[in-house]
Task: structure prediction
Amino acid sequence: MFLLPTVNAAAEDRMLHIPAHSLSWFNPVTNTDSLEALLKKTVGTEKVDLLCELVYAYLRSGNYKPGHAKILAEALELSRGLNYNNGMIKANYLLSLYKHAEKKDLPKRLQPLLEAETYFDNETHWTLKYRVWKRIWFFSGLMNEAKTAYQYRHKPLLLLDPDTAWLAHFTAHIELMRQASITNEHIQKRHHLEAAKQIYAQHKELIYNSDNLFGMASMLEEISINLAHYGEYQRAVDLMIQLHEILSDPDKKIHITTFSGQRYWVVLPGFITTGVNMMLPWGILINPSNALTNFMWNITAE
Result:
């Protein structure tokens, strides 16, 4: 019997309790040869799960080819015949990713996601719901459908349990904080900032025990920058110091494009500034032309 965790038992997916019938997230299977070998031994819903994981592995590696669309077509056909809703969701979600990689028109990238959403049921894991919604709001935004994008940014907060789907809530608050910043809704911006900060505080140990912080490093930095914008420099600095400590751990495997191999600055307590905060990769620099600092760290990432 094929069980996804026996093939993919990495830290982040385990911590999020992603079941075998859902789709891996942070730790997708990379050995496509092993997946193809397993395909010969599986039938039914397990075969659908394997087909989806295989396409996901190709997409994540950038090694996708036009012929892989046939794999998704097979997964969709099998899922329909089996009345397998999770298969329909995963295959349509991956079809959207595939069309995005192929640079298809935006409506063609969006349509499979809207189709996937129609198959949500009580068996659909929150990580799968969230990822479908996130892509819908992303493509809706690109299509200048602001109302739809806003609605889908809110869906995790309205429809997902805040305890089990804490990562979806965290990211939704970050997205809504960004939106409120663009529209100058300062009360809403502050609300979402504090909500994200609270979620981080509640799950900090879990986050720091993962290999790549659930991809949250840049978002944590964004919280720090916004705290500094509000003049809460100590809170901003404390968060950046915590982030630096975990990123400095040689056992961690941080693979974040916006962070890797770049230089960043952390401003420590004891400074005076008359200017505006300036955002840099990996931290905050308080207006370098006007800031007087007692302490400054200049840290080069590996």
